Amino acid sequence: MSDSYRVKDHRELEKCIGYAFSDKALLLNALTHSSYCNENRTADGSIPSNERLEFLGDSVLSVIVSDYIYKNYRSFDEGDLTKIRAAVVCENTLALFARNIKLGDYILLGRGEEATDGRKRKSILSDAFEALIAAVYLDGGIEKAREFVLPWITEAAQISMKKGTEDYKSRLQRLAQETPEEILEYVLIGEEGPPHDRRFTIEARLNSNVLGTGTGKSKREAEQQAAKKALVLFGEDEKA
């Protein structure tokens, strides 16, 4: 291997992820970017890229994440679970996982990608991480793949839940409960439109003080909008 493609010893990566491959070829395949294959073609195409493994790893990861959040977030509905899963398996999150294990140091890249900091590119890192998941799965089975990714999933799911899946009313209620004597209520102040297209207007009030007013096609939607406006007032959310 030329100096252009000198990477760290794969044994260091195995030690980092806590898994030793029986089939080292699988690990090498997971770390081989298509740009390297394109620049080192052989007549029989014997240098495969990690794209097929990436495809499989995406599905394996989705199953593991779905299973975990289904079992551990029992009060969440389908919409909330979908949001958490999307946040955990997105490119940004996977690239962060990859950086934490210094995966970029081990990837085989073509000269062009090497010269343009391909080892730091989110798309390359996230794809390689998915390929690595697939390699562990094929080498050791689903439980070994689960052991590898579960610590990352757990933390990412918790962060996602705190940031994005808690609705506005729940967040406002949590704030109000910090002072037990405070009374938070939602008051319907307007209702208009034909039966098939009603519009409701609701105020979020704290001790009779109006914090925010929301409008929606249902009372629940109007309450959520009112709570969102109130959170802005508290400096807890972006401008509504």
Summarize the structure in words.
This protein starts with 9 loop residues before the first helix and ends in a 7-residue tail after the last helix. It is mainly α and 240 residues long. A hairpin with a 6-residue loop joins strand 1 and strand 2 (199-206). Strands 1-2-3 form a three-stranded antiparallel sheet, covered by helices on one side. The protein contains eleven helices and three strands. The chain folds into two domains: 3-164, Orthogonal Bundle (Ribonuclease iii, N-terminal Endonuclease Domain, Chain A); 168-233, Double Stranded RNA Binding Domain, CATH 3.30.160. Helix content is 57%, strand content 10%.
Explain the layout of strands and helices.
Layout: H1 10-17, H2 24-30, H3 34-39, H4 51-72, H5 78-89, H6 91-100, H7 111-115, H8 122-140, H9 142-165, H10 168-176, E1 184-192, E2 199-206, E3 209-216, H11 219-233
Antiparallel strand pairs: 1-2, 2-3
Number of domains: 2
Largest β-sheet summary = 3 strands, antiparallel
Query: What's the rounded overall pLDDT mean?
Result: 87
| % residues in beta strands | 5-15%
Which features characterize this protein?
disordered N terminus, 240 residues, Double Stranded RNA Binding Domain, 3 strands, 10% strand, mainly alpha, 57% helix, 3-stranded antiparallel sheet, Ribonuclease iii, N-terminal Endonuclease Domain, Chain A
